[in-house]
Amino acid sequence: MSGVRAQQKQKTRQALIEAAFNQLSAEHSFSNLSLREVAREAGIAPTSFYRHFKDMNELGLTMVDEAGLTLRQLMRQARRRIASGGSVIITSVETFMEFIDTSSNQFRLLLRERSGTSKAFRAAVAREIKHFILELAHYLETETPCDKHHAYMQSEAMVTLVFNAGAEALDQDAQQRGELTERLIWQLRYIARGANHYGA
Amino acid sequence: MSGVRAQQKQKTRQALIEAAFNQLSAEHSFSNLSLREVAREAGIAPTSFYRHFKDMNELGLTMVDEAGLTLRQLMRQARRRIASGGSVIITSVETFMEFIDTSSNQFRLLLRERSGTSKAFRAAVAREIKHFILELAHYLETETPCDKHHAYMQSEAMVTLVFNAGAEALDQDAQQRGELTERLIWQLRYIARGANHYGA
DNA sequence: TATTTTAGCGTACAACTGTACGCTGAAATT
DNA sequence: AATTTCAGCGTACAGTTGTACGCTAAAATA
């Protein structure tokens, strides 16, 4: 029932996705990928592309899902580290920086399409980020003295800062990143402190 | 010495810039503007474009400067309002939201090119934002009990949150914007509180 | 007045894009 | 074994892009 055929199809589908991710870089964003180039890198004819996606848009949305998945998996791993005694703020920041380093093209996709030209893309990225915010908010609500509403606002602010720091880190060398991370941690402390003050 | 000729040249140059801004929208970003379309909207032949800019890139950088200028002017006006007795946080946020509303395409340019595919663009936008941060940091340093380093970090965090809230606001209706703004103000309060605590 | 400068135009071209259409061969189904 | 399904291919086409080149007319300069 697995099917030699269906299996092969899945394989070239994945090849298309990977080809597209490979072509993302600091100088190349999703919106200026071309269907033909992606097909070429995946090793299939341009017209075969349509056997897998109706559109470059459809490919892109799939890629956003995949990037979101990567991020969620990484964060699950972070929670494990936190549970076994790490600092919440520092562990989270480190994990996120790891994501940016090892999956920079996936991060770039989220980063850019968050304010890109397709409403569907923007919504998809916003959804991924919201997951993130809600998880952190849940943690803050149960583990710190902070009411629900303030926990959410606190979480939202923190995620925004972390995400933005990630964006800046993309263009920086190791030393600059170190300073950036240090500043970021202070800023997260501000928020934690302030939220706990106002949020009862 | 003003020159009928130089004057006309300046005029069509400005027409090109305005044409390009007009073609920006939620669905159209700078990187997928075409030289020909811009020239067409400005009412000149495609090849005449080169009499004014060597490149679409050069046009874009000019546009970033112009958007930065608009923003700085608006903020100077905000400081006047603050000096005559307004709340710093609320006045700044209101002014920024005004910018997004009345110059949304200029904001979109800054927003997108901040993480765009051209390093020069990214640097140009970063410069504009840094202006912003430094000005606010200066204010915080002199007007609140906060040492220099913490004032900078506080300012950076605040500007990041405001900028990002602006990005979200672009896709929202009046009611959602209201809620967003309210959350943003709380988040800025967190930061102010936390920074004043840690920053002596 | 004679000369130089230059903003803007039209033509032309090669490169590239998305995609419609029909074929093929092998896997899947009957 | 006969039939159907379908991933992938090649060809073809119309549309768009950036830009090289040389011309023109009017403004600026000498």
Automatic annotation (TrEMBL), chains A, B:
Positions of the HTH tetR-type domain: 11-71
Keyword entries, A-Z: DNA-binding, Transcription, Transcription regulation
Gene Ontology MF annotations: DNA binding
Annotated region of DNA binding: 34-53
Listed NCBIfam families: PRK11202.1 (NF008402)
SUPFAM superfamilies: Homeodomain-like
InterPro entries: DesT_TetR_C, DNA-bd_HTH_TetR-type_CS, Homeodomain-like_sf, HTH_TetR, HTH_transcr_repressor_FabR
Protein name: DNA-binding transcriptional regulator FabR
UniProt organism field: Pseudoalteromonas byunsanensis
Pfam name, any one: TetR_N
PANTHER family documented for this protein: HTH-TYPE TRANSCRIPTIONAL REPRESSOR FABR (PTHR47752:SF1)
